[in-house]
User: Fold this.
Amino acid sequence: MGSHDGNLYAVDSRSGRELWRFATGDEVKSSPSIAGDTVVFGSFDGNVYGLDAKTGSEQWRFRTRNDVFSSPVIGDGVVYIGSDDGHVYALE
Assistant:
């Protein structure tokens, strides 16, 4: 889950224990999506991130020109996400 503190958190659904956290440069209002072993989400720092679902380590990032608070949709290996820069991006 994203947070106003600039982190995305992974929490064990049974125990409520934090598994990992990933710090971005600003608030995270985007709900994450999962494709395979990758968690994808946007941040108000203008980036779209792809993290390893098990460890929270960054696999990739894509820079937009403004805040990203929309939630990504993933289909056929493509991530679709909007930015406050007025664009919808399709990322492979």
Remarks:
- DSSP finds no helices and nine strands in the chain.
- The mean pLDDT is 97.
